[in-house]
């Protein structure tokens, strides 16, 4: 049968606070085990939680960023279950009254179309610790450094229809939270983890099938693979007359498969109820307005503006607006050189290419945007050609100075003296009589190729510094009709 | 010795101030009396002789150097529910039999900073779950007035230790009457402040929305003295109140003329021991004679306090006690087979029967399909109960009634029947559900056993309760009566 | 109010307690009596009444985002039943 996947995602986003959501412990990644676990984090008797203001502000910023209803009053609940990485025997979360209600979010798919994804809710909660399964004499070791790190759990409606859409959503979400500055978004360190709810239904049907939940997938690639595998697994099951069991599964990246989680065998009943150690969180309108005023231009709006203001293609605008740092960089370059398309092209091709080769992000870029803009300005005023510019770019990257000083030092100024170029053109024609004869006999298409050949000859003679437009013009004049 | 007129905390501090005795002498005296009496009484779980003597000597040195805190050298006992850094804090449970906290409760810290000296940790019902002190892992504490009877609970050890003159004052906690009922049964004064008045940080949780720390002492004056030190906002407790703390001691002399005292009609009906009722009416008559006006009132939902409380408190307790899993501290079973065995056996071995019963009830009240009918219904009823009190306070300043339905009962009399035991709390639970302050003070005893009068105030109106009790204690000496010495010899 | 044996088992499993078969009848009886008590609540008309989770109508205070805790692992782990290399040990957990 032709099955249609229905996918919903729950993203656990670690918020970039300095201290934990309910205690004054540090949240730094990678500390020695249990050195960032305070009496509160360890659930020592008599210890009590106090809510971190920054976690609340970040949650509200997110809500504003997806144009969601902000819970003027939200309530923390206890979610009760036993697990060694959960010291209190309950997780403090939000159940009935979350801080962020319904919102929506636009994503752009590979074919350039866009789709609006409904966000059901986003709520604050605390992260659990980590279980280390290396063998401690047949035992598991528990590190509670991560316990109490603030999480924003962001839940989508079950509206994603493919692995591609799921990944597009996650990438867009990743971009958004970095724009908002509410998370470091470091997926390798678990700052953004994803639970995937997935079910199949006959194509065209509007009832939902039984879903499986795949827990804790922490990279875009694994999300894509886990979904692909799960779709395949469920389709095989259904095609062979079986049925999907509602269960929690684990994606095993090493074996590239999903399998049921054994630890969740005991049927759970989370017994949510309002956390009596905390009071309702009431947000003043003034705080919400203050945060709204700090909202940066967000990716969707920026993408649109790049198209409208600079005449960029949707694709180029999407690439450049993907990160706030890259977008800012691009705009600074465009401002310096006054040609946005040239700037867009150079930032995407030369700059991103170079960053990629060196494994750097835009934040680590050694080249200031006005330096790159200065280089592009020399292309625009015809001091140098694009080809020479690439050579200068390399030198600038190596720290040899700004474009003008490199042009001077290396004598790379473009030759636009028509007398000098005419002499080089004459020499090229005189040195290649065979090609001149071919040209005379050739059709238009062949002539184009031959012109390219002559331009190459002239460029060689000029060490690339001849003004290409002038070379072309003189060749057209001097070649036979 | 125990039949001497007991010394109050206030008089001891006066003696210290005037140099009539040293803190070290006071502590040695306390330790001697504990050594002599407590084998039979069992009011202490842990006595910290060494630490107390060191602290007393430090207090003497501070006093000599002119930098003594207001309570410098005052001997004090803490209910074993308050965490004391470096001193075993068991909550009267096998689960925490070896638990030595690396931190102190805020209330303990504040009293220590003021110079009070911790003599030891008092007996209690396990995790404060009980009204008789019989659920303690360390065996029951006995009532100093009659060793065959219970001291009440859960703060039974604190009440008995103060009543027996082992310490002038002690801390207690009150979730459903656990300060007031033992104070009543042991003939001392005990105050449970407004919810949020005393920080809960470091106070081992039973039911978070009901728990409140307070003071158990001879007199209202002593309660005022200690409460003023313990109370106040604590930023580490989200539910801690920001209301400023008045000077309770200077408030003791506030004018009370024309004070309206509300008497809930149904509290003086057949459910109350009639002789106890007579004693309470006599005391109320004396207050009336001193200018108070007695007004009948109704608290139409208060009789639902027992079912509401016995769902809400176990529900909160069932999850508050989930942290005791044998992983990070506390009892861990021997040679666990697997994780489930570690959890189940550690908890089964670590918790006593009443604690397990309440965990199961609480788990039930919160479980899927029952939440609305039990937990939610109880919390809705709680609002009605609170509203009754708020409505009553539009017409009266204070509400008065019994603390307990009778005098101290015999050991073993009610322990096998939880529902009968729960009736013991019928006059006290509503106060916790509503978060109000209340105190119990001793009136004329009955058949050699103490009787307590309960005074309930509006939120944050502790000062008026203390002043009213103080007024009564100025003219009577029931609060200064001591139990007969152990062994029955007069 | 009657609790089935299965229900009792499930409650015990959720609470990570074990019910001694010998004590089960007495426990069942006690629990049923307590829950029976709870049925008195039906007498209260709570239509449209908000649950009261906390006796004071206060709102949650917020803490500034500063690190105030230092590493006290040694003190905390001195009272732990089983630790190694700074980790708390539990019987092997299989995911």
TrEMBL record, chain A:
It holds the Pfam family GatB_Yqey. Keywords: ATP-binding, Ligase, Nucleotide-binding, Protein biosynthesis, Transferase. One of its GO terms (biological process) is translation. Its EC number is 6.3.5.-. Gene3D superfamilies: 1.10.10.410, GatB domain, N-terminal subdomain (1.10.150.380). It catalyses: L-aspartyl-tRNA(Asn) + L-glutamine + ATP + H2O = L-asparaginyl-tRNA(Asn) + L-glutamate + ADP + phosphate + 2 H(+); L-glutamyl-tRNA(Gln) + L-glutamine + ATP + H2O = L-glutaminyl-tRNA(Gln) + L-glutamate + ADP + phosphate + H(+). Belongs to the GatB/GatE family. GatB subfamily. This is Aspartyl/glutamyl-tRNA(Asn/Gln) amidotransferase subunit B.
Automatic annotation (TrEMBL), chain B:
GO terms for molecular function: ATP binding; glutaminyl-tRNA synthase (glutamine-hydrolyzing) activity; transferase activity. It is an enzyme of class 6 (ligase). Keywords: ATP-binding, Ligase, Nucleotide-binding, Protein biosynthesis, Transferase. Pfam families: Amidase. PROSITE patterns: AMIDASES. Residues 25-466 form the Amidase domain. Its EC number is 6.3.5.7. InterPro entries: Amidase, Amidase_CS, Amidase_dom, AS_sf, GatA. The active site is at residues 79, 154, 178. It comes from the Bacteria. It catalyses: L-glutamyl-tRNA(Gln) + L-glutamine + ATP + H2O = L-glutaminyl-tRNA(Gln) + L-glutamate + ADP + phosphate + H(+). The keyword Cell cycle does not apply. GO terms for biological process: translation. GO terms for cellular component: glutamyl-tRNA(Gln) amidotransferase complex. Allows the formation of correctly charged Gln-tRNA(Gln) through the transamidation of misacylated Glu-tRNA(Gln) in organisms which lack glutaminyl-tRNA synthetase. The reaction takes place in the presence of glutamine and ATP through an activated gamma-phospho-Glu-tRNA(Gln). Heterotrimer of A, B and C subunits. Belongs to the amidase family. GatA subfamily. This is Glutamyl-tRNA(Gln) amidotransferase subunit A. The lineage of its organism: Bacteria, Pseudomonadati, Pseudomonadota, Gammaproteobacteria, Cellvibrionales.
From TrEMBL, chain C:
InterPro entries: Asp/Glu-ADT_sf_sub_c, GatC. The keyword Glycoprotein does not apply. It is an enzyme of class 6 (ligase). Gene3D superfamilies: Glu-tRNAGln amidotransferase C subunit, N-terminal domain. It catalyses: L-aspartyl-tRNA(Asn) + L-glutamine + ATP + H2O = L-asparaginyl-tRNA(Asn) + L-glutamate + ADP + phosphate + 2 H(+); L-glutamyl-tRNA(Gln) + L-glutamine + ATP + H2O = L-glutaminyl-tRNA(Gln) + L-glutamate + ADP + phosphate + H(+). Pfam families: GatC. GO terms for biological process: glutaminyl-tRNAGln biosynthesis via transamidation; regulation of translational fidelity; translation. Keywords: ATP-binding, Ligase, Nucleotide-binding, Protein biosynthesis, Transferase. One of its GO terms (molecular function) is ATP binding. Its EC number is 6.3.5.-. Belongs to the GatC family. Allows the formation of correctly charged Asn-tRNA(Asn) or Gln-tRNA(Gln) through the transamidation of misacylated Asp-tRNA(Asn) or Glu-tRNA(Gln) in organisms which lack either or both of asparaginyl-tRNA or glutaminyl-tRNA synthetases. The reaction takes place in the presence of glutamine and ATP through an activated phospho-Asp-tRNA(Asn) or phospho-Glu-tRNA(Gln). HAMAP family: GatC (MF_00122). Heterotrimer of A, B and C subunits. This is Aspartyl/glutamyl-tRNA(Asn/Gln) amidotransferase subunit C. It comes from Pseudohaliea rubra DSM 19751.
């Amino acid at each position: 049968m032709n099955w249609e996947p229905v996918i919903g995602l729950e993203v656990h986003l670690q918020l970039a606070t300095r201290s934990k959501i309910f205690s004054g412990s540090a949240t730094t990644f990678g500390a020695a085990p249990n050195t960032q676990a305070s009496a509160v984090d360890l659930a020592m008797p008599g210890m009590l939680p106090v809510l971190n203001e920054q976690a609340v502000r970040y949650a509200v910023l997110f809500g504003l960023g997806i144009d969601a209803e902000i819970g003027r009053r939200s309530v923390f609940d206890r979610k009760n279950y036993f697990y060694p990485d959960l010291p209190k025997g309950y997780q403090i979360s939000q159940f009935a009254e979350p801080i962020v209600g319904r919102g929506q979010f636009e994503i752009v798919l590979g074919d350039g179309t866009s789709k609006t994804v409904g966000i059901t809710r986003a709520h604050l909660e605390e992260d659990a610790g980590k279980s280390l399964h290396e063998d401690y004499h047949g035992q598991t070791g528990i590190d509670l450094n991560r316990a109490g790190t603030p999480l924003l759990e962001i839940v989508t409606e079950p509206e994603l229809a493919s692995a591609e859409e799921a990944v597009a959503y996650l990438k867009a979400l990743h971009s958004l939270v970095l724009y908002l500055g509410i998370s470091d978004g470091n997926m390798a360190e678990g700052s953004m983890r994803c639970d995937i709810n997935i079910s199949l239904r006959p194509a065209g049907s509007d009832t939902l099938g039984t879903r499986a939940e795949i827990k804790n997938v922490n990279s875009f690639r694994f999300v894509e693979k886990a979904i692909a595998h799960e779709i395949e697994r469920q389709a095989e099951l259904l095609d062979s007359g079986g049925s999907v069991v509602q269960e929690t599964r684990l994606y095993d990246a090493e074996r590239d498969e999903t399998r049921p989680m054994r630890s969740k065998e005991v049927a759970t009943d989370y017994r949510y109820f309002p956390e009596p150690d905390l009071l309702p969180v009431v947000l003043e309108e003034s705080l919400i307005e203050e945060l709204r005023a700090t909202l940066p231009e967000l990716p969707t709006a920026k993408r649109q503006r790049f198209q409208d203001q600079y005449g960029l293609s949707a694709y180029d605008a999407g690439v450049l607006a993907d990160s706030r740092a890259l977008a800012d960089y691009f705009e600074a370059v465009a401002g310096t050189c006054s040609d946005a398309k040239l700037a867009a092209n150079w930032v995407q091709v030369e700059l991103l290419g170079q960053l990629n080769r060196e494994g750097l992000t835009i934040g680590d870029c050694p080249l200031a945007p006005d330096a790159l803009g200065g280089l592009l300005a020399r292309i625009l005023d015809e001091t140098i050609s694009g080809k020479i510019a690439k050579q200068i770019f390399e030198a600038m990257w190596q720290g040899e100075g700004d474009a003008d000083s490199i042009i001077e030092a290396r004598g790379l100024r473009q030759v636009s003296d028509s007398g000098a170029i005419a002499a080089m053109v004459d020499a090229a024609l005189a040195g290649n009589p065979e090609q001149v004869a071919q040209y005379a006999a050739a059709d238009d298409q062949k002539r184009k190729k031959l012109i390219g050949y002559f331009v190459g000859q002239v460029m060689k003679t000029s060490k690339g510094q001849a003004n290409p437009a002038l070379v072309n013009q003189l060749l057209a004049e001097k070649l036979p009709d | 010795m125990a039949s001497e007129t007991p010394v109050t905390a206030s008089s001891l501090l006066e003696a210290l101030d005037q140099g009539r005795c040293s803190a070290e002498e006071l502590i040695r005296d306390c330790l001697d009396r504990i050594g002599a009496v407590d084998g039979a009484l069992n009011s202490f779980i842990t006595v910290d002789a060494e630490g107390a003597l060191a602290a007393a000597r430090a207090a003497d040195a501070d006093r000599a150097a002119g930098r003594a805190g207001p309570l410098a050298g005052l001997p004090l006992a803490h209910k074993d529910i308050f965490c004391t850094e470096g001193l075993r804090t068991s909550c009267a449970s096998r689960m925490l039999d070896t638990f030595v906290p690396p931190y102190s409760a805020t209330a303990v810290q504040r009293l220590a900073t003021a110079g009070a000296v911790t003599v030891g940790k008092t007996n209690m019902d396990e995790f404060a779950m009980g009204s008789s002190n019989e659920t303690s892992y360390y065996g029951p504490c006995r009532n100093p007035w009659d060793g065959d009877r219970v001291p009440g609970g859960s703060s039974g050890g604190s009440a008995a230790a103060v009543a027996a003159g082992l310490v002038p004052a002690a801390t207690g906690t009150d979730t459903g009457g656990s300060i007031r009922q033992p104070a009543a049964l042991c003939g001392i004064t005990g105050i449970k402040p407004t919810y949020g008045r005393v920080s809960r940080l470091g106070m081992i949780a039973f039911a978070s929305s009901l728990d409140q720390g307070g003071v158990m002492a001879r007199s209202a004056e002593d309660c005022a003295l200690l409460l003023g030190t313990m109370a106040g906002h604590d930023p580490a407790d989200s539910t801690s109140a920001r209301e400023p703390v008045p000077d309770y001691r200077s408030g003791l002399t506030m004018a009370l003329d024309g004070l309206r005292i509300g008497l809930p009609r149904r509290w003086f009906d057949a459910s109350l021991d009639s002789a106890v009722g007579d004693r309470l009416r006599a005391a109320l008559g004396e207050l009336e004679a001193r200018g108070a006006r007695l007004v009948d009132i109704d608290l139409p939902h208060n009789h639902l306090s027992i079912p509401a409380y016995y769902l809400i408190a176990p529900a909160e307790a069932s999850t508050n006690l989930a942290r005791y899993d044998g992983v990070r501290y506390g009892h861990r079973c021997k040679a666990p087979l697997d994780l489930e065995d570690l959890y189940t056996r550690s908890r089964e071995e670590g918790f006593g029967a009443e604690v397990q019963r309440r965990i199961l009830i609480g788990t039930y009240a919160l479980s899927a399909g029952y939440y609305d009918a039990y937990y939610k219904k109880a919390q809705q009823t709680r609002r009605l109960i609170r509203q009754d009190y708020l409505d009553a306070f539009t017409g009266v300043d204070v509400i008065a009634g019994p603390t307990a339905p009778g005098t101290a009962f015999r050991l073993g009399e009610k322990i096998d029947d939880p529902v009968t035991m729960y009736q013991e709390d019928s006059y006290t639970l509503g106060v916790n559900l509503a978060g109000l302050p209340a105190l119990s003070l001793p009136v004329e005893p009955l058949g050699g056993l103490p009787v307590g009068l309960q005074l309930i105030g509006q939120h944050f109106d502790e000062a008026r309760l203390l002043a009213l009790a103080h007024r009564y204690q100025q003219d009577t000496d029931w609060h200064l009566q001591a139990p007969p010495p152990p062994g029955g010899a007069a | 109010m009657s609790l089935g044996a299965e229900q009792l088992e499930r409650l015990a499993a959720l609470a990570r307690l074990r019910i001694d078969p010998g004590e089960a009848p007495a426990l069942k009886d006690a629990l049923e009596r307590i829950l029976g008590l709870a049925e008195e609540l039906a007498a209260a008309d709570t239509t449209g009444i908000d649950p009261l989770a906390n006796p004071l109508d206060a709102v949650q205070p917020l803490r500034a985002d500063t690190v105030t805790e230092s590493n006290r692992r040694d003190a905390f782990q001195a009272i732990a039943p089983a630790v190694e290399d700074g980790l708390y040990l539990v019987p092997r957990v299989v995911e």
